Amino acid sequence: MHCDEVKDFITREKIIAVIRADIKQELFSRAVQALFEGGIRCIEITMTSPNALAIIENLKREWKGKDILIGTGTVLDTTTCRLAILAGTDFIVTPTLLPDVITTAKNYGVVSMCGGFTPTELFQAWQTGADFVKLFPASVGGPEYIKAVLGPLPHLPIVPTGGIHHENARKFLEAGAVALGVGGNLASKQLLASENYSLITETAKLYKSALS
Fold first, then answer.
1. I need a labelling partner for 46 at 20 to 30 A (CA). Which of 16, 56, 85, 155 fits?
2. What residue numbers bound the domain in which 164 lies?
3. Residue 2's CB: how many other CB atoms inside 10 A?
4. Distance (Å, whole) CA 195 – CA 91
5. Beta-carbon count within 10 A of 151 CB
6. pLDDT confidence of 190, banded at 50, 70, 90?
7. Contact between residue 128 and residue 121 where contact means Cβ atoms under 8 Å apart
8. What digits encode the pLDDT tens for the residues 18-52?
């Protein structure tokens, strides 16, 4: 997908499922399948997961031509950013403000989502060229914080992550977020380790119905 198509896809789908787990490589495929069956089309594999790049490359191969995005999270440096792009990632996510990573992704024509918390960090991420600004941890200020930030900075494409569950997800969007990053409340380490894929699918459906 072209960069603009990826951005449109994310803002249309609204939910990015974040998978951060120490499980066998083949279990990531089953987890993505479970999320897909529940209606989730944007998946982020974090670099804290062992063999993350191999997992991403494998998922991109398995889901080639399908209506799904596979991104790379917890990218902390330009080398990792390049390796993720070579693995075929659809988007790059950083947990903090990392201008060099934003610039690298932009140079390769890959969508970036740069982390920050304060209005200064979020604005600087956008000004540097991030396609989305990841507000983390969103649980600290909640939807009201997003509304306050967007008062003077209404153009920021904010994607809150951390502490979002199906009961408060809509409130974040109503506050002005363009999409949501959801990790442990959707595909927790416990569910992944126990291979409870049916519950992951049902939870994904809960999130989708909450936003419909």
1. 155
2. 3-211
3. 9
4. 26
5. 10
6. confident
7. no
8. 999 887 888 899 999 999 999 999 999 999 999 99
